[in-house]
């Protein structure tokens, strides 16, 4: 018998192997740091991130998830877990709690997180309700601009605005640069009626929340310019960066459709469907069910980012 035929006879195909004999799935690609040397230094000084221990820390968090929440349906990739470690300055326990909060939030608020993808929010994006300014602030933070006056309540419910906010945050946080530098949320209340402003009251804050920092302003731009330089602001906000452009960020989101479909449009395994009921921090579930959806959004943001 020829050598070729002998090989065919003695080497069964993958299809003929039993389920237990199938080769393991390929490992996800290894982590490659994209931070500049300057940001590596910043992460070391401000986030307690040590490059030489980074993968060890990720593995420690991964082991904790597998041990304490074996049925949790979550990515365990290095890059994904780093997001939570950085947000909690590499405190393993707090990073794990943040990860659980994040998934609890997603399970407990299906009207916001189910089918969360850019194509489902075209009306909100077209309204100009929110965008990301093209330039970062001096610290390297991206600036998310929210304009409540662009929301017409008769067109769609307020939860669609919240979905657009989460969509934008999820896209931004994928960047390691954002994980280190953070995000500024700029809420523009100029020209907003009192009735509409009451819906957005929970965003009236100037406080660091994980990687988020909120600024509120009305007609008086002095406080805004004290925190954000005119050079990065559009002329609508007394800046020198030209007209406010919403189309560019909308295009960025719409180009990420496949990523959001993969992450937010898949069924949750039945084995962890109870997660949102049992692991949600005290007080969060009641807020998520209250009539004021923006109040719930504030609670979720405190716990998830």
UniProtKB/TrEMBL annotation:
<dbReference type="GO" id="GO:0016020">
    <property type="term" value="C:membrane"/>
</dbReference>
<dbReference type="Pfam" id="PF00650">
    <property type="entry name" value="CRAL_TRIO"/>
</dbReference>
<dbReference type="Pfam" id="PF03765">
    <property type="entry name" value="CRAL_TRIO_N"/>
</dbReference>
<dbReference type="GO" id="GO:1902936">
    <property type="term" value="F:phosphatidylinositol bisphosphate binding"/>
</dbReference>
<dbReference type="InterPro" id="IPR011074">
    <property type="entry name" value="CRAL/TRIO_N_dom"/>
</dbReference>
<feature type="domain" description="CRAL-TRIO">
    <location>
        <begin position="117"/>
        <end position="292"/>
    </location>
</feature>
<dbReference type="InterPro" id="IPR036865">
    <property type="entry name" value="CRAL-TRIO_dom_sf"/>
</dbReference>
<feature type="compositionally biased region" description="Polar residues">
    <location>
        <begin position="8"/>
        <end position="19"/>
    </location>
</feature>
<dbReference type="InterPro" id="IPR036273">
    <property type="entry name" value="CRAL/TRIO_N_dom_sf"/>
</dbReference>
<dbReference type="InterPro" id="IPR001251">
    <property type="entry name" value="CRAL-TRIO_dom"/>
</dbReference>
<protein>
    <submittedName>
        <fullName>Alpha tocopherol transfer protein like</fullName>
    </submittedName>
</protein>
<feature type="region of interest" description="Disordered">
    <location>
        <begin position="1"/>
        <end position="30"/>
    </location>
</feature>
């Amino acid at each position: 018998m020829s050598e070729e035929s002998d090989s065919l006879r003695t080497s069964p195909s993958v299809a003929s192997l039993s389920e237990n004999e199938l080769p393991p799935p390929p490992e996800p690609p290894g982590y490659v740091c994209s931070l500049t040397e300057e940001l590596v230094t910043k992460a070391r000084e401000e986030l307690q991130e040590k490059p030489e221990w980074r993968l060890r820390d990720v593995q420690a968090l991964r082991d904790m998830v597998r041990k304490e929440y074996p049925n949790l349906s979550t990515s365990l990739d290095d890059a994904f877990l780093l997001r939570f470690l950085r947000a909690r300055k590499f405190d393993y326990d707090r990073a794990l709690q943040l990860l659980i909060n994040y998934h609890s939030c997603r399970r407990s608020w299906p009207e916001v997180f189910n089918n969360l993808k850019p194509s489902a929010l075209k009306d909100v994006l077209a309204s100009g309700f929110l965008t990301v300014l093209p330039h970062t602030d001096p610290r390297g933070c991206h600036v998310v601009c929210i304009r409540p006056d662009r929301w017409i309540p008769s067109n769609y419910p307020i939860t669609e605005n919240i979905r657009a906010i989460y969509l934008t945050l999820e896209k931004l946080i994928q960047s390691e640069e954002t994980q280190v530098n953070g995000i500024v949320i700029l809420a523009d209340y100029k020209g907003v009626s009192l009735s509409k402003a009451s819906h957005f009251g929970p965003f009236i804050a100037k406080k660091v929340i994980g990687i988020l920092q909120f600024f509120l302003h009305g007609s008086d731009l002095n406080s805004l310019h004290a925190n954000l330089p005119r050079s990065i602001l559009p002329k609508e906000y007394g800046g020198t960066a030209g007209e406010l452009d919403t189309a560019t960020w909308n295009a960025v989101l719409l180009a990420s459709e496949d990523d959001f479909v993969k992450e937010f449009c898949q069924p949750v395994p039945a084995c962890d469907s109870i997660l949102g009921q049992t692991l949600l921090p005290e007080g969060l579930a009641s807020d998520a069910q209250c009539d004021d959806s923006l109040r719930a959004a504030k609670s979720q943001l405190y716990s998830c980012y």
